[in-house]
Every structure is written in structure tokens, then in C-alpha cells.
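Per your request, structure below.
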């Protein structure tokens, strides 16, 4: 039996000022969302001149603005931070939030970003191998014990970090559906597996590759407040997101689509609202969609 559905607000910290981000985060918590997810880029993909705030700075602000929601990223880029630095940042935010931080991480979804900022131009297999070492080092350091590590990318000698996580463990989320490079990482490290929409058609074959990781699904949501507003909302959502992971329509239609994901095993939904998560839309979703999702 599936556990109750969890809803995360995916809110890329771009094209909004801090006051707006705070308003939407506080609204999401009040409405019953389980988690807030941010993104991790050096500038917004496809919009390099648009303003955007740092992933960990905003995550710390979210922790200060809230009391209950979990906090994470969809997803941190493994290339950006040495694993010793990442472990220290993760456990610091874990303590600051009272144990509410989830470590969502990947091996870099925008390769040209890495090249533009001088962070390497490595092929996917190398980046995936680097992420494996990153996760091994982070997990070892979070035990609080001295470690020696001799890898292809990282070498540590008698390295030790304190404190350890508040709850003894920081949950790890890994996204993707590649059978050769990503799914072995999911199997070996992840508490949560975020399956992209392109992988849903192969879900029956991919689930056995995910080990014990629980299934998370990412969706873009265009939520119409009424049948009269439906066509306009759907058209706007399609202009902004195309067909990428889009679920659009009335609350009944959106709930029906999410219940179809539930039937395939989804326990968590990471949702990006096509109107940038206005308080009115978040309240409507909480009132009419959340209770209708099995």
C-alpha cells in the first residue's frame, strides 16, 4: 500500500524577488505542502540574463521562513561543489532547519553551463562517475568519523567533519531514468527517485532498477479556477511549458492525472505551477486537488 501522497512546490528562484519567494513559501506551508524544492544553476537555463538567487542561500531562507516543510533541490549539480564542502553545507542546513533538509543531486543537466563557467566539459559517463564518488565521500563524512578516501576524482586523508545529521541521516534524492548511468546511482544511494516524465512509459522496467528508492514524479500544473477559465489557462500553460510534464485543466482533471501517476506508484509529486505559484492557485490546489488524490 502506498503512503499518503506528498506534494512539493518546485519553485525555481528566478524572476522573483525575495519578498515574492517568501510569500509563496509561506503560503505553500500554510496550504499543507510537504516540501519546497529549488533549483541549482549559475544562471537560468535558456535565460542567461535573467536574475536568479543561489540555491543554498535561498534554501536557508526557506528554512528560516518555515517551521514544518522539508527543503530540497531539484537538483543540486554535483559538479559545482567539492564533496567535503557539500557535506558541510548539507549538514549545516540540516541543523539550521531542525532536520528538514533533503539532498537532491544530479550530475549536471545543462552541459554547456559547465563549459561557460569553466567547470569542465566532461562526457556524461565521467560526470556520473564523479557523482558516485561525491556521494560516497558525503555519506562517509556525515558519519562524523575520520575517513581516508582514494578515488579517481577525490582524495581525502584522515578527514573528519562534525556535526552529524540531526536525524542520523539526510535523505538523498536522485533524478533521471538512464539505465546505464543514473539508475545504478539511484539503486545504491537514493531514498527518493525522481522519475522524469519520459521515463514513465518504461516505469515497470525501471522500478526494479531503483532498489529501495521511493518514487517521485515531477509535473507542471496549469490549474483553472473554473470551467469558464479552463481554455485560457490551458493555452497559457502550453505556451510556457509545451507538453513537458504538463497537467492542465480544472481541479478534477488535474486530480485525475495525478491519480494516474499514483496508480503507477508515485508517492511524491514535485509541482511547478504555470502561473508561478500564485497564492490563489496554491490555495485552490490545496482545497480541491490534494484531497482528491488517493
Amino acid at each position: 500500500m502506498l503512503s499518503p501522497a506528498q506534494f512539493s512546490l518546485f519553485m525555481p528562484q528566478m524572476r522573483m524577488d525575495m519578498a515574492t519567494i517568501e510569500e509563496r513559501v509561506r503560503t505553500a506551508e500554510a496550504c499543507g505542502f510537504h516540501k519546497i524544492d529549488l533549483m541549482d544553476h549559475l544562471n537560468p537555463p535558456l535565460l542567461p540574463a535573467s536574475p536568479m538567487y543561489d540555491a543554498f542561500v535561498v534554501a536557508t531562507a526557506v528554512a528560516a521562513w518555515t517551521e514544518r516543510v522539508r527543503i530540497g533541490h531539484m537538483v543540486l549539480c554535483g559538479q559545482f561543489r567539492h564533496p567535503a564542502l557539500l557535506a558541510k553545507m548539507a549538514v549545516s542546513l540540516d541543523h539550521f532547519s531542525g532536520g528538514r533538509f533533503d539532498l537532491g543531486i544530479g550530475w549536471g543537466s545543462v552541459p554547456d553551463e559547465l563549459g561557460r563557467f569553466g567547470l569542465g566539459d566532461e562526457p556524461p559517463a565521467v560526470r556520473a562517475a564523479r557523482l558516485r564518488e561525491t556521494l560516497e565521500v558525503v555519506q562517509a563524512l556525515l558519519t562524523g568519523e575520520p575517513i581516508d578516501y582514494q578515488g579517481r576524482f577525490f582524495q581525502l586523508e584522515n578527514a573528519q567533519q562534525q556535526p552529524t545529521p540531526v536525524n542520523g541521516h539526510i535523505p538523498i534524492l536522485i533524478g533521471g531514468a538512464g539505465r546505464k548511468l543514473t539508475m545504478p546511482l539511484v539503486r545504491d544511494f537514493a531514498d527518493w527517485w525522481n522519475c522524469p516524465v519520459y521515463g514513465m512509459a518504461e516505469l515497470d522496467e525501471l522500478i526494479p532498477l531503483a532498489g529501495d528508492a521511493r518514487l517521485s514524479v515531477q509535473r507542471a500544473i496549469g490549474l483553472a479556477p473554473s470551467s469558464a477559465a479552463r481554455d485560457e489557462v490551458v493555452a497559457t500553460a502550453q505556451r510556457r511549458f509545451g507538453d513537458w510534464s504538463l497537467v492542465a485543466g480544472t481541479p478534477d482533471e488535474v486530480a485525475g492525472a495525478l491519480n494516474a501517476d499514483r496508480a503507477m506508484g508515485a508517492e511524491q509529486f514535485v509541482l511547478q505551477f504555470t502561473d508561478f505559484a500564485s497564492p490563489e492557485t496554491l490555495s485552490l490546489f490545496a482545497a480541491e486537488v490534494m484531497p482528491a488524490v488517493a
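The radius of gyration is 19 Å.

Regards,
D.
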